[in-house]
Amino acid sequence: MSHTPTQPSSPRRPRRMRGRILAAAALTALTGLTLAGLPVAANAATGPGHTPDVVREHLEQLAKEAGLPAAMREVKELARHRTADVVQQRLDKLVKSGAFPAALASTRDAKGRTRNYTAGVADLKTRAKVPVDGKVRIASNTKMFTAVVVLQLAGEGKIDLDAPVEKYLPGLIRGNGNDGRKITTRQLLQHTSGLPNYTRYMPSVFEYQHTYTGPREMLDTALAHRASFAPGKDWEYSNTGYIVAGLLVQKITGRPLSEEITNRIIKRIGLRDTYWPGIGDQIIRGSHPKGYAAKKPGGPLLDVTNLDPSWGWAAGQLIATPSDVNRFLVALLDGKLLKPEQLTQMRATVKTKGMPSGWQYGLGLVKMPLSCGGNAWGHGGDIDGYETRDAVTEDGRAATVAVTALPTDEAGVMNVVAAVDAALCANR
Known about the structure:
Blueprint: H1 15-31, H2 53-65, H3 69-96, E1 102-108, E2 114-120, E3 136-137, H4 142-155, E4 174-175, E5 178-179, H5 185-190, H6 205-208, H7 215-223, H8 239-253, H9 257-266, E6 292-293, E7 302-303, H10 313-316, E8 319-320, H11 322-333, H12 340-346, E9 350-351, E10 360-361, E11 366-369, E12 375-378, E13 381-383, E14 386-392, E15 398-403, H13 410-426
Antiparallel strand pairs: 1-2, 1-15, 3-8, 4-5, 6-7, 9-10, 10-11, 11-12, 12-14, 13-14, 14-15
């Protein structure tokens, strides 16, 4: 006669252990992640780019009840890992579009933790890897630096933002309806001066790539054309206003603009990978991806990494890494560069034209609405071979994205902007 062996009864588990097992099971059900060595599948009840607050808070509570401190730490890392996925996906998309040989980015969360990303290749011939946090020409981001120096001088009582430029640079701006007696320094920084944009009249990079140009030559190019509008009556992005602002800094301080930006900003906040190329300096020093441009839309991309950036000067000459741009933005909003009154004035904005919907311009600083709500502050820059977009939020989240060619259409421009937006929103 057969019988079924009696199974030994399992010892009753201590209540605390049962709690841990139940909590671990709950974590598994909710997250699908492996936490503190618990085997679970890979999927999570998460939204795009971050763990929803309600889920994250519940997971933390469960982990706490289970006495799993390691699990709690991993739960808190969930949002960061998801953020990394979103940023990398965006960079991969930029490269796969065919518009950009490489993309690189740096992000910073509200606690100061940073991450760097790359996609594509640094060199189309050698297929070399993109250097992590490599240097790029940051072009019009230079305007933020120039504006900060002007505002520092205003805070020192050396410049009245609402006085005519004529007071400091007598006789400099004349002709074709351009008149320094009617233009203020604030209008220069705000793009409401009406000064025609000199870069509109420049030849292609392939004609100008290795040509040195002084700031007065650029101003003369602009003044050969009619004013775009009466000062203060409209808004138009104009590099010319920043050339005048740079000349103003030099007149007030008696020192080169490059030296003032270096001493007052770069050295002051420790930007180790940001520098102003000297006269005749056409290379990018240190690790960097190559920059490319085509002679005509759809044509082959040609190497334009080495060029003379003097034509950008106060409006666009600086070189930096994405992480250094983030450091600058955080320091700026933290009040480490400007007195409260000047920082407030820098952030006083006007409506723009030709920029993405909702963007407003202050004094060298752009206010940008985020898709996840709220606003961010930054700028961006375009120069042959490189485009950068960057922003920082009030709570210290920052992101800078760089690509190694200029977009050729609006979709390309907005894809780079969207990458910054995604990084900031995922890092909430």
